[in-house]
Design brief:
two-stranded antiparallel sheet; alpha+beta; 260 residues; 14 strands; globular; Cyclophilin
């Protein structure tokens, strides 16, 4: 027959096991909730200057979004449609409807080069717009204003001259090269407003580690050299210590040039 002290230890053990089970169940629920409903804002341009964009993401392959033909500029190769949005920029105008092919780009970020291969065949309108903006020094001296460090989304977002997440070139266009798109480390893709695939402008993101996103963000290039530059920025984290916010140290896109 068990002694009184043994019985007490047995009861204490049972209580501890129940507490551990409840704690584990609560953590599992919280983890599932974060995976399903976490909203990590990849802010793109905002019509009228109102920054309301966010990427809603879930587990890989859980994509409930749809893209209409009118949002997909790749449906008409060689002929691009750019629509006025926000405040027109008279200095840079609108990108040519027949894009100029560019196969490479170099970003200088905080004085360090990041080389890109551009997918002009798969995303001609996106690459054409990028080349147009770069030729007008649109990106020079702008900030990479947003960093995400979530386990499932690891990107640095650039291309907004206002540094607020609400800036754009005065025009917007649809998605390209999204059929079956994935976002492994090194991917370069366009940002757009949530549920508005036709709202691409000038903001783009650099994927520094494999990330999970629904296939609705135009993949227009990949990093061929300098990925460690972006990873180094990410390693410092965000200014407020969260998984989504401004980089801890301000990041400047000194220059962006494209080439054949």
């Amino acid at each position: 027959m068990a002694s009184t002290s043994q019985r007490r230890r047995q009861l204490a053990r049972q209580r501890w096991e129940k507490q551990e089970a409840r704690r584990a169940a609560a953590e599992a629920r919280s983890r599932r909730r974060r995976q399903v409903v976490a909203v990590l804002a990849i802010v793109a341009i905002a019509v009228g200057g109102i920054a309301t964009a966010a990427v809603v993401w879930g587990p890989l392959g859980n994509d409930d979004s749809t893209t209409t033909a009118s949002d997909d500029t790749s449906a008409a190769p060689g002929s691009c449609t750019y629509t006025a949005a926000g405040t027109p920029n008279e200095e840079i105008g609108v990108a040519p409807t027949t894009p100029t092919a560019a196969s490479t780009a170099t970003l200088t970020i905080d004085g360090q080069p990041v080389a890109l291969e551009l997918f002009a065949d798969a995303a001609p309108c996106t690459v054409g717009s990028l080349a147009h903006l770069a030729a007008h020094d649109y990106f020079d001296g702008t900030s990479c204003h947003r960093l995400t460090t979530s386990p499932s989304l690891r990107v640095l977002q650039c291309g907004d001259p206002t540094g607020t997440g609400g800036g754009g070139p005065g025009y917007e266009f649809g998605v390209e090269n999204t059929d079956g798109a994935t976002y492994p480390a090194g991917t370069v893709a366009m940002a757009h407003r949530q549920d508005e695939p036709g709202s691409n402008g000038s903001q783009f993101f650099l994927v520094y580690e494999d990330s999970q996103l629904p296939p609705e963000y135009t993949v227009f290039g990949r990093i061929t050299a300098g990925l460690e530059v972006v990873a180094g920025i990410a390693a410092a984290g965000t200014a407020d210590g969260s998984e989504d916010g401004a980089p801890k140290q301000p990041v400047t896109l000194d220059d962006l040039v494209t080439g054949a």
